[in-house]
Every structure is written in structure tokens, then in C-alpha cells.
Amino acid sequence: MDLRSNVAPTRATLFIKSFKKLCKNPLSASGVAIVALLLILAIAAPLIATHDPLQQDLLRTLSPPSMAHWFGTDEYGRDIFSRLVYGSRVTLYIVFLVTIIVGPIGLFIGTMSGYFGGWIDSVFMRVTDIFISFPSLVLALAFVAALGPGLEHAVIAIALTSWPPVARLARAETLTLRNSDYVVAAQLQGASSSRILVHYISLMCLPSLIVRLTMNMATVILTAAALGFLGLGAQPPLPEWGAMISTGRSYMLESWWLVAFPGAAIMLVSLAFNLLGDGLRDLLDPRTE
Questions:
Q1: pTM: predicted TM-score of the whole model, two decimal places
Q2: Where are the alpha helices (DSSP H) in 25-150?
Q3: CA distance to 112, 148, 170, 199, 280, per residue, from 157 (Å)
Q4: How many CB atoms lie within 10 A of CB 277?
Q5: Whose CA is closest to 154, among 211, 91, 216, 213?
Q6: Of the candidates 226, 220, 234, 232, which has an alpha carbon nearest to the alpha carbon of residue 159?
Q7: What is Dmax (Cα atoms) for the chain?
């Protein structure tokens, strides 16, 4: 009882100290603030949005920003601010699904390849090289073209193109860890390879992978926006930032707000995840201290 009561405050204190250290850097703090704002927008979208994002009002088409419509309206009279707010849900949905798919796949392939070596390393790394040899956006376009347009298909395509760098990083970390003293000691004690991979090497690879996945979220957002722009991602009338830019480009010269606000949202959120990743790298990587 005493031990458990002492462990919980220690973990809470460690989390608070880590969060304070992360927020000491103004750039990292701004990244945390923007990501937190994105989460709030996604969770409280029905409370924050001023209009129904799908409601059309043909009498107010292409209205400039005003008190009634803060970010103006699109070609169907839909409120752009409300569509941006609900679009944050689509963005987080894509980022979350891609991350939980890419993380385990990259960690599994990288640790297996680095720990066992030999033909396992050769097979896994040659497959990884094939995926890396193609530009990620081009490869994602090929997968979406094969699967068909749609939000879920876009998630699968982005995930299939995002795991190779994670696997490379996990392999590099495993190569430096597999001859460590504690791993050798576990082997001498009769620990199985699966136990060593799960309880020793994978846990030590997690900090680097968390940083990599966080910084990879910016690429995921940009790729998802590109697929939406080309009509291969989220389908109308679903509010998605890339698709909003695509439909607004025809009216861009007269109605600048159609592309300016979605573009600014993509830029800010991508920048925020990069800044957050830099802060986590300084926090989790002891070599930077």
C-alpha cells in the first residue's frame, strides 16, 4: 500500500516536471499550445462551430469575412470557420490512425531486423528500400488509385508509405542496443529472444520512435491534404482542409478566404507538430543534454 501510494505521486511529479521542461522552450510551448487548441476544436466542435458545416445558403455564396461568418462562406454559402473546426476532426482522425498503424509495424520490422540480422535483416531492409526509393506522395497516389478514393483508403495509403523511416530508425537503435550489457545479461540468464525484444530493446527504442512519429505527423497532414486536394481523400461534403482548398481555387482571385484560411490551418498545424517533435527530442534524448 505504501509503495503504491508513493509511486503514483512520483510519476505525476515526473510528468509535471517533464511538461514544464518542454514548455520552457518558447517554440516547443507554441507547438504544444497549437496542438492542444486543435484537440479542443476537434472535441468541442459542436460547441465552437457557429454554423452547421454542411448547411448551404445560396443567398450568401462567397460572402467575405464578417461578424455573421468570421471566415466568410464558400461557393455554396457554407460557413468556412465551421468547416475548418469540423475539419480538425478529420485531420486528427487521419493522424491518429496512421500513427497507431505505422508505429507498431515500424517497431516490429526494425527491431526484428536489427536484432536477428542475417537473412531476416536482408529481406526486411530490401523491402524497406523498395518503399523508400519512391517519393511518398507518388506511392500514396498509386495505392489510393488501386484502392479507390475515400478517407479510409487514404489512411491505408499514407500508412503504407510512412512506416519505412520508422523501421530504419528502430533498426539503427536495435543495432546499438543488442550488444548492451543488460541485453547480454538477459541472454545469459536464459531469456528468450521475444522477451528481450519486447521487454528490453523495444522499450529503449520508444523515446526515439515517439519523436519520429510526432515529427512524421506533419508529413501525414500534408500528404492527406494533397490527396484531398486531388479528390482522392475525404469525399464531399465532408469538411477536409485539402479538399476545401481544391474547391476554392476556382474562386481564389476574387474570394481569397476560400484558400487562405484552410491553407493557414494546414501550415500552422504542420509547424506545431514539428515544433512539438523538436521539444520531445530535447526532452527524451539524453544525448542532447
A1: 0.87
A2: 26-43, 45-48, 80-116, 118-132, 136-147
A3: 24, 10, 21, 31, 27
A4: 21
A5: 91
A6: 220
A7: 77
**SS3 at position 239:** coil
Write the CA distances from 153 to 125, 225, 232, integer angstroms: 25, 14, 9
Report the C-alpha gap between 107 and 114 in whole angstroms.
10
Q: What is the CA angle 50-56-61, rounded to 5?
A: 95
Pick out the chain residues at pLDDT < 50. Answer: 1-5, 7-8, 288-289
Q: Identify whether the C-beta of residue 258 lies closer than 8 Å to the C-beta of residue 65.
A: no
Q: How far apart are CA 93 and CA 76, in angstroms?
A: 25
Return the amino acid letter for 256: W
- What pLDDT, in 10s, does the model give residues 26-83? 888 899 999 999 999 999 999 999 999 999 988 888 999 999 899 999 999 999 999 9
CB 227 within 8 A of CB 242: yes
Pair 237, 228: CB distance under 8 Å:
no
Burial class (CB in 10 A: 0-12, 13-18, 19+), 110: buried
Cell numbers linked to 157: 495509403
